[in-house]
Amino acid sequence: MSEETSNHLPVMREITPLMGSDCFYLADRHKSRFDFPIHTHREYELNYIGGGAGVRRTVGDHSETVGDDDLVLITGSDLEHVWEQGDCHSTDIREITIQFTQDVLPESLLSKHQFRSIRQMLESARCGLAFSRPTIMKVYGKLDALTRQKSSFHAVLDFLELLYDLSLAEDSRTLSSSAFARSETRSESRRIAKVQDYIARHYDKDIRLEELAGLVGMTPVAFSRFFHQRTGRTLSNYIIDIRIGTAARLLADSDLTVAEICYDCGFNTLSNFNRLFRKHKGCSPTEFRENFFKKKLIV
Questions:
Q1: pLDDT attached to residue 1
Q2: For residue 183, what pLDDT is reported?
Q3: Where are the beta strands (DSSP E) in the chain?
């Protein structure tokens, strides 16, 4: 383990047991408590928690209490995450952790049609990707069998099949906001990418639908529909997500006041910023900063 220091408190940079000659590292353990601090690591991670109802999971700027089963994929190398005891009283929690490097699935492989869904899943998981309980139940047998696979060659094949099954899930959801996770996920459309790049550079200013539509040679109405179809979000919600995520990152990593962050992120009034932040994060900016620093404490 090593420490990476921000402007405030350190976040642990985990040095995993994964060796350069390994395809992946798997740990299957039973535990009664969660005491590992908030951390990051370069490797991708698929983490399953069974019997952990009440555990508090934090990924980036997203935090929630999980049920009996939790399965999350994280591919963001700078994405801070932690599972904390919370209100969990179980004395037998099963945790299966699979860590693997990016070169196990190189671009030359992911670019093939057969791996397209896995590629899209890995892109989404830069912000942390949580799978629904029905999906977890569907793949649990394969996940469990993987822990007992004696052949390393067949273990790799089983792992790829597990990833493929997860990539077909239609009810998975991203966790952290993209700006907080420093994610550079891009739509496959060049026009959408052009607009996303523009928003990333000008989120602190007033952004009008007409100017974005003009960037890609479309009418405002046509562009608004096009953007929603390609990203799954309205333009206004996308811009708000970028601004809120950036604000959350500044709250965690800077000494700027809440008011300074509000205006630096493109919000016109402090009251509007506080309202939208609470709507998206479930707490005020001040509460978020206090809670995030508490999670960074290492005893």
A1: 41
A2: 67
A3: 2-5, 10-13, 24-31, 39-40, 44-50, 56-59, 62-65, 69-74, 81-84, 93-100, 129-130, 173-174
